[in-house]
Write the C-alpha cells for this entry.
Amino acid sequence: MNPQIRILISIAFITSLACSAFAQDKLNFEYATPESSGFSAVKLDSLSKFLTSAGSSSLILLVDGKIIFEWGKTDYKHTIHSIRKPLISALYGIYVERGIIDTTATLQDLNIDDIVPSLSENEKSARIIDLLKSRSGVYHDAAANSSGMVSNRPERDEFIPNENYFYNNWDFNVLGAILEQVTGKSVFELFKTEIANPIGMNDYLGEYSQIDGDDKNASIPNLDGFYQYEKSKSIYPAYHFRLSARDMAKFGQLYLNNGNWKGKQIIPKSWIDISTKAYSVTNPRYGIGYGMLWFVLMANEFRKSSSFYHTGTNVHMLGIYPSSKVVLIHRVDTEKKYTFNQNDFYKMIELVWGSKAE
C-alpha cells in the first residue's frame, strides 16, 4: 500500500475513534422520546418557549435514567448556590459509612469556635447531626448569608441545639470545614474523588480558588469551585460549586438510583433514606420539610409519596421524584445579570409537570 494512503487511512481511523469517543462520553445518557415516558413533545415545546423568554440557561428532564427533554447550554458551568448542600450531604454519607465521621460528635469535641463573639458552651454542645438538619442553635454571623438569613436570625443562645430549625449558612459552612478537618482535603477534591469521577461527570475537574467576599468587586473565578471568605463575619468560608446541568443530572440520577452507579454503591442507600427524610416542617401549607441538607416534599393527601429537592437562590433546581422516576435540573446563569425570577421558577415547575401526556 502507498505510504501516503496508509497515513491518510490511519489519520481517518484515529479521528473517527476520537469523534466516536466524544459522542459517547459527551453525556453518557440514553435518550428517549417524551411520549415513551408519558410526556408530550408538543407541551414540552411550550416549556422551551417559556425558558427562552424567561431567561433560563438550561434544563434537563430525565425519566428512568433517560433524557426526554434537554434545553440550553447543558455543558456550561456556573455557580449552583445553595445546591452545594446536597453535595456535602452525599460526602457525609460516604464518610459516616466508613466510620471516619461520627455525627454525634459536638463542636466542642471538634475544637470548633469562631471569631468574637465566640461560641458559647451551649452552642459548642451542638452535634454534627444538628448542623446537618440545620438545627444547631448556633446563630453566629457567617459568610454568604442572605439578607433574609440575617433579618430572621434568632438571638444567640435563644435555643438549645436541636430545638429549632433555622436555615443557617453558619451550619453549612462549618460542615464543609469539618469534612476538610477530618480528611485533610478540600471539599472540591473530595467531591471529585468520591463522586464526580466515579459517576463520570464530564465537566467537573475539581479545580478551585478563593475570593474575598468582603470585596464587593471580587470576581468569580472560572473554575469548578471557590471559597468565599468574609473574615469580618466568620473564619469559615462558604464553599461554592460551579457545575454544568449535565453533571448535576448525573448527581440527581445517582440519588434516584439510591446511591448506586452501574453496580457500584457510591453513596450508602441507608444514608440517602435518612437524609431525605423530613426532620423539620418548614412549610406546613405545602407539606415541605427539611432533612439533612435536602428539602423534602412530604407525602400527604395530595401526594402519595415523598420526593426531595434543593433550590439555589430561588431559580436553580435539583429535583428527585422517586415515584415518577424523574430527575429535574434547571439552571440560570446568575453570574451575569439575569431576569429569571421566583415566579418564573414556579411557572417552570408548573410547565414541566403540565407537560405530562393526558
